[in-house]
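User: Teach me something about this protein's shape.
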Amino acid sequence: MSEVWSKEDEVAILDMIDKWVENDVRPIAKEYDQEDKYPHQLVEQMKSLGLFGATISQDYGGMGLPASIYAKIVIKVASAWMAPGGIFNSHLIQASLIERCGTEEQKARILPRMVEGELRGGIALTEPNAGSDLQAIRTTAVRDGDDYIINGAKTWITNSLHGNSLAVLVKTNTDIEPRHKGTSMFFIETKDADDNYLPGIEVIKMKKLGYRAIDTCEVVFTNFRVPADNLVGGEEGKGFIQAVGGLELGRINVAARGAGIAKGAMELAVRYAQERETFGKPIANHQAIQLKLGEMATKVEAARLLIEQAANKYDSGERCDMEAGMAKYFGSEAGVFCANEAMRIFGGYSYSVEYDIERFYRDAMLMCIGEGTNEMQRIIISKQLVERYKI
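Assistant: First, the predicted structure itself:
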């Protein structure tokens, strides 16, 4: 459970993040996005701000923030530039996995280093043939003495180029039924002390439409050795349950990033609508524009409230896959809607890279796909709905 945070603490933290976003994040967003250049200086600032330990328990040196405060941080960052949130989000999903499912020895060994940003990483689930269907993964780990030998490929893995650790979902038993009982999770360090990849790992950077400047890669394992002590929880066959159990926090984060995109796009549109004039008056005075702005504002607020509901349930320790699914679905769709409507409000200028709105438009669609597609979210919501109202 998260530690108790007062309202004064929350205000102070959010004020600190506000200043960081305005002074350091927003000014470099356009340049780094267009050049697809990794923001090393932001990573160092994230270390100083404590973001790499944001949701890690204070027992291990982290801040122990509740999801409710964490989500507000993510919205603030994403309203200026969505991509940097992925650096600490993927890292914290990995940390959550270790804290929830790791052995006491693993927690004590790994989490303090993650808090400091000495270890930075993500979670490697997706494969070229397995996205939403994690039971279909083909990456294998075979026991060999005190090690396991991993072979296979993961794709769309954040923090795999500039980070140095991953939580990797593998098959340790390819014959067992149901298939999920044959999956296991390993914590691996991917680099040595000199920042060189360990033998058996190849990382290939992927070029993307949006979500630029952040390292998203294919990771190939060829006879990669990992100590058996790094089997998360110390027991085979638990990987699938461990993976899906951590998706609630990830989906709250993606919902918050979608809501941040929606909020940022709306704010850009409101400002531009007051600056741009047609037919002798600001376009904000035209009813067609007013209708767009009104719906954008409503979706932003509705997304915020759904995220707050999901985060509060998560913080209370209740099951919240339905609420997190709703928040992720609506928040990400709100991001797409607001970015699209803002493009129309900007008109022809929306196609110019001189205006930030085109970045919001490119980044928005990823939130509908990442952490489980929105089609999957609706299926999850439906199943939980039937379960809760079973006759």
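Now, about its shape. The CA atoms of residues 268 and 357 lie 7 Å apart. The mean pLDDT is 95. If you'd like, I can walk through any region in more detail.
User: That's plenty for now, thanks!
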